[in-house]
What does this fold into?
Amino acid sequence: MAALESNPSLTTATLTFPNWKTILDFTCILLSMPLWLPVVLILALWIKLVSPGSVFFRQERVGHGGKRFMILKFRTMKVNVETRTHERHLEQLINSDVPMTKLDAAGDPRIISGGRFLRATGLDELPQLFNVLRGEMSLVGPRPCTPHEFKSYQVWQRERVNARPGLTGYWQVNGKNRTTFAEMIKLDIFYTKNMSLWLDLTIMLKTLPALITQVLDGRSAASSRRGEVAGNLSNKFSAGRC
It folds into this structure.
């Protein structure tokens, strides 16, 4: 009932979670466990070696129907860093018609060694498989937003939580960081209204190519930044000689 009150666009029907999604989620996770479990253990060990503190990062997110839950991620930032920078960055993306580039695409000194790679490849989100097993998320669905972000949504945009949040989704395989915030919302709402077994399977198959594209885009952006820095240094050197 609390979820319905916090999100006027919801009805009892939209809060229903399809049985086929539960079966698909558990089947895929259990069958792939020999692949992802060793990776989880290796990454946990790596984070413990390169940065003191907890291996996992926990944060409150808005889930299906507006219900709050604690999301699990591998910690990619140093302990006790400020988070207001991320909130300001997100506010700028919401209020402007620009692509949804990540903050660390411009370089972020708060990120631990190897953290940028984990974020670019999505490996930092592997612990969310446990959120799926707990019934808080699905393998496919909109990315769960923070309560701070949810408060800024217009009423129609809150339809985005009419589906259980996912590790991958329709937005992620249709542009992701190349899209604007408004485009992301529309893509996610399209998914909530068109969920099907075929669509979920299609999104899963497209996820790996989308991740590869994302990594390549990140490398291209990094190369551009290095070129800009080199150019600025060269200009300063030339100006000094004059």
In short: The chain is about 50% helix and 10% strand. The chain has a mean pLDDT of 83.
